[in-house]
Write a structure and sequence with these properties.
The chain is an alpha+beta fold. It is built from eleven helices and 16 strands. The protein has a ten-stranded mixed sheet, with helices on both faces. Strands 13-12-16-11-15-14 form a six-stranded mixed sheet.
């Protein structure tokens, strides 16, 4: 059975191994031991902190195979982006131009550099080891963050967003970067990707063009990938869209991957989760999958079959009870998935 829990200091080595599998595009999880050590420390401090309103907190979760005590995945939440460095995006907009004398009516697309997501909560660093991409592991890992957010809403912003990895070819080349970023930064895409991932973002503020980029002047290959998710990220985008996060024209400044967003109160998993009491311990008769999370100081989350009763109580099988480290009479949060 898998359990999703806050990261611990002892998880550094397997986290580094996961980061090395992520490749380009996942800038929030660089394969850098020093940076990951800092992220783990910040996460541990954030979970322990009493929070009234979101600031620079960072919550990093791992998925652990409890049978083998092996870390197979991770995911994270940035409570409020842009607290240390501005959080930049491109906003895709349209400009209509008309000349009555020549009967010409043209619509031009523009990319404007903005930081409209400043202060929003970011879903990030979702990664699952290839051999763990079975059954509902990916779904459980992604949804677990929403259960934590629903339990502790004061830790998070009113708006939730995620950057989806944009198109990059097998050699790590981004058509959008070649057409735009390359000309202003003078470094290749992997280098820029790495610098952003380890938190060195001043170069973005110093070198990024402040004027709109006319999309029509870009090569067709670059135009074609604006707002398009990488093949390996399309499923993640579709999954978030089912949770009511939508693409509204914002894209990543490096690879032009889409950003999706929603008010926290509109996120499906946050709206639909319930607090219930465990009243029985027995094998489930249900075929429905649930995600179950503890409500105490130590957040733990796992998926499986449970029996939900109309009076706001549930019966859990013993293996799920043991994995969550809860007992009969405890209150848990459940989400039907």
């Amino acid at each position: 059975m898998m359990v999703i829990r806050p990261i611990a200091a002892s998880d550094l080595k397997p986290l580094l191994a996961l980061a090395k599998q992520s490749g380009l595009g996942i800038t929030t999880l660089p394969a850098d031991k020093g940076i990951l050590t800092e992220k783990i420390q910040l996460s541990m401090e954030s979970f322990a902190k009493q929070v009234v309103s979101p600031a620079n907190e960072y919550y990093l979760f791992v998925m652990e195979d409890v049978r083998y005590q092996k870390i197979v995945g991770c995911c994270a939440l940035k409570a409020a982006v842009g607290q240390v460095w501005p959080f930049y995006s491109y906003k895709l907009s349209r400009l209509s131009q008309k000349n009555q004398e020549l009967h010409i009516d043209k619509e031009i697309q523009l990319l404007n550099l903005v930081n409209d997501y400043q202060g929003a909560t970011e879903l990030c660093s979702l990664l699952l080891a290839p051999d763990a991409r079975v059954k509902n592991n990916g779904k459980y890992l992604s949804l677990s963050r929403f259960l934590f957010m629903g339990q502790q809403p004061t830790r998070f912003a009113d708006n939730v967003m995620a950057e989806i990895r944009g198109y990059v070819d097998d050699e790590g080349h981004s058509p959008f970067w070649r057409a735009v970023g390359k000309h202003f930064f003078g470094i290749d895409f992997p280098r820029a990707d790495h610098l952003s991932g380890i938190g060195k973002k001043q170069f973005i503020a110093d070198l990024m063009p402040q004027y709109p980029v006319y999309v029509n002047l870009l090569p067709e290959a670059a135009q074609a990938v604006i707002g398009q998710a990488h093949a390996q990220s399309r499923a993640a985008k579709a999954f978030l869209e089912k949770q009511n996060l939508q693409y509204t024209g914002y894209v990543d400044i490096f690879d032009a991957g889409p950003c999706v967003e929603a008010p926290m109160e509109k996120v499906r998993a946050i709206k639909n989760q319930k607090c219930v009491r465990i009243v029985e311990v027995k094998p489930s008769q249900s075929l429905q999958h649930y995600l179950v999370a503890t409500t105490g100081e130590q957040f733990r989350c796992a998926g499986g079959h449970i029996d939900e009763y109309p009076d706001g109580t549930v019966a859990l099988p013993q293996d799920l009870l043991t994995t969550l480290q809860v007992d009969k009479g405890d209150i848990v949060t459940i989400l039907q998935v």
